[in-house]
Amino acid sequence: MMKKLNIALSLLLLAAAPALAVKDINKDKDAAVVLPDVEMIDVPTAGILDYYGFMLKSRFYSQGGVLGSLNFGVQERLNLGAAMTVDKLIGSESGIKMRQPAIQVKFRFYDGGYYIPAAAVGYDGQGYYYNSVSKKYLEKGKGLYLVGSKEIGVPGLALHGGLNVPDFDNNCLFGFLGLNYTLEDKIAFMLEYDNLFHNADPSRFNAGTRIYVTPYFQLDLALREIGRSGKFSDGTARKSERIVQFRYNTSF
Q1: Residue 3 CB: number of other CB atoms within 10 A?
Q2: How far apart are CA 171 and CA 108, in angstroms?
Q3: pLDDT for residue 177 is more than 80
Q4: DSSP class of 89
Q5: Does any domain span residue 233?
Q6: Is 173 inside a domain boundary?
Q7: Neighbours of 135 (CB within 10 A)
Q8: Among 102, 111, 183, 217, which one has the highest count of C-beta atoms within 10 angstroms of its own C-beta?
Q9: What is the CATH number of the domain that holds 206?
Q10: What's the total number of domains in the chain?
Q11: pLDDT tens digits, 88-124
Q12: Angle at 164 between CA 160 and CA 168, to 5 degrees
């Protein structure tokens, strides 16, 4: 129990430490500008990290699990990173399990115009709900995806949409949509409709709020699979899930 608590506290401190560095940000208030979001809850956007930028994310999900990821802007339009989940890390349950890391890549090939959205292609192998028997995620990662993003209607309101192939064994094409509204660079409201087109693998409706604690440190509170019930293919119950997520992004 103490080992779990120590690891959990370390992850929390790692995620929160950048927020304590506000005094460094305040040295150059002109530079304290909220950067474009590279992702929402589960849905990616066409936004990318700046060259020499990086983003650290810690997500706390059901049954004491923690998902951590680290992404870098290795070129002007190219982001590379990796993610990994640790099941049962927080709480009193025994049997902490570290899952195999997943690769994350995104290349923004078009910056957008007056009518045409910005566009990016990428790969994200990080899924959810790992099945130790099949050694696969019950909810697959995005896999290979194409996404477009564009501000619509009013300032701060952005629409994101795309197509993805999560599993190359069956090559099924899925779709996703996302909508977010950012209010005065202080708070954002997010809606997602994910995993579209296939009844055998049900769609997901997610909603959440992103609080910009500082221009570089955000706190996400979200609910995944709203109204969802039933079971996964292995008999595991499928239900709504509350998550908390810390994100820190800056540059070298």
Answers
A1: 9
A2: 23
A3: yes
A4: -
A5: yes
A6: yes
A7: 9
A8: 217
A9: 2.40.160.40
A10: 1
A11: 888 777 788 888 899 999 999 999 998 999 999 999 9
A12: 170
Q: Where are the alpha helices (DSSP H) in the chain?
A: 2-16, 22-25
Per the DSSP assignment, residues forming a β-bridge with 210 are 188, 220
Exposed e or buried b per residue across 99-128, where buried means at least 16 C-beta atoms within 10 angstroms of its C-beta: beebebbbebeeeeeeeebbbbbbbbbbbb
Instruction: Name which of 10, 7, 11, 4 is nearest 94 in CA terms.
Output: 4
- Cα separation, 99 vs 138, in Å, equals 14
> For residues 141 and 82, what is the distance between their CA atoms, to the nearest angstrom?
13
Q: Which residues contact 88 (CB under 8 A, 6 or more apart)?
A: 63, 64, 65, 94, 95, 96, 97
The SS3 of residue 63 is helix
Strands 136-139 and 128-131: antiparallel
Q: Domain of 241?
A: 2-25+43-251
DSSP for 92-142 reads S-S--EEPPPEEEEEEEEE---SSSPEEEEEEE---EEEETTTTEEEE---
* Cα 59 to Cα 112: distance, rounded to the nearest angstrom: 30
Place of tokens 């570290």: 98
Residue 181 is predicted with a pLDDT of 96
Q: What pLDDT does residue 62 have?
A: 82
pLDDT at position 168 is: 83
Query: What percent of the chain has pLDDT above 70?
Result: 86
**Domain membership flag for residue 31:** no
CA atoms within 13 A on the CB side of 196: 14
Identify the residue whose tokens are 């769609």: 203
- Within its chain, how far is the Cα of 39 from the centroid? 5
